[in-house]
Design goal:
There is one protein chain. The chain has 221 residues and is α+β, with helices and mostly antiparallel strands. It is 25% helix and 24% strand. The mean pLDDT is 92.
């Protein structure tokens, strides 16, 4: 695979090009601008298991804390159960599934939905990194995500035919619902995520998503 030539001359310029992300998320081995899909898989196979996106030959480690991981897992479970058990609409992928959007661009949405119509022959490709175009992508914001980074992710998702994106902010307990890379409406904590025409019938209130998990009390025998 041909790797795009790195245009930036300094680390500062590179970080700016990547959306102003913190430097600790950019891997220096392999040298930025030379990384390939094989390097994405090697990073994943390390004992530390570094989940990385590939952006024009640069490995960028995905940022995920405990809270964000929990919320992503909860959203994934709800969406997967709905898509498979009730409607068989397609496949829902969790936050460690690498998706090739185009050559030299691999993204790892926190949750993504791909309808059967976008999956060749209605069967998941047996590839470590599959070329798939999600119709719905969700990102759970962490303190190490920047607005420009998320904006670029939205551009990338909608460029391959994404129809709906949810940007979820655990700190403010809000979400932005995008129908294009720039068109969105904001939901406060009383709002509800709605699958619309992409995942018709699916609904999840932000109150339920952000509810603090507590151990269930055992029923007396």
């Amino acid at each position: 695979m041909a790797v795009a030539e790195l245009q930036e001359d300094t680390i500062a310029e590179l970080l700016d090009q990547l959306g102003g992300i913190p430097p600790h998320r950019v891997l220096l081995k392999p040298t930025p601008g030379t990384a390939t899909e094989e390097d994405v898989l090697k990073a994943l196979a390390q004992p530390r298991k570094r989940i990385c996106e590939l952006i024009d030959g640069v490995l960028v480690e995905k940022d995920m804390g405990t809270t964000e991981g929990y919320l992503g897992g909860l959203l994934f479970r709800r969406m997967a159960q709905f898509a498979e058990d009730e409607k068989d609409l397609g496949l829902v992928f969790p936050g460690d599934a690498h998706i090739r959007l185009r050559p030299d661009l691999i993204r790892v949405p926190d949750v993504s939905f791909v309808p059967w119509e976008r999956i060749p022959n209605g069967e998941l490709p047996n590839d470590p990194i599959a070329s798939l175009a999600p119709e719905l992508a969700a990102e759970i914001i962490t303190p190490n995500n920047t607005k420009r980074e998320i904006d670029q992710k939205l551009v990338d998702y909608f460029a391959v035919g994404c129809k709906l994106a949810w940007i979820i902010d655990p700190e403010t307990k809000t979400a932005k619902v995008y129908t294009s890379a720039k068109r969105f409406k904001e939901l406060d904590e009383t709002g509800t995520l709605d699958g619309g025409k992409v995942l018709p019938g699916f609904k999840l209130s932000l109150a339920d998503l952000f509810a603090a998990p507590k151990r269930r009390k055992k029923k007396p025998r």
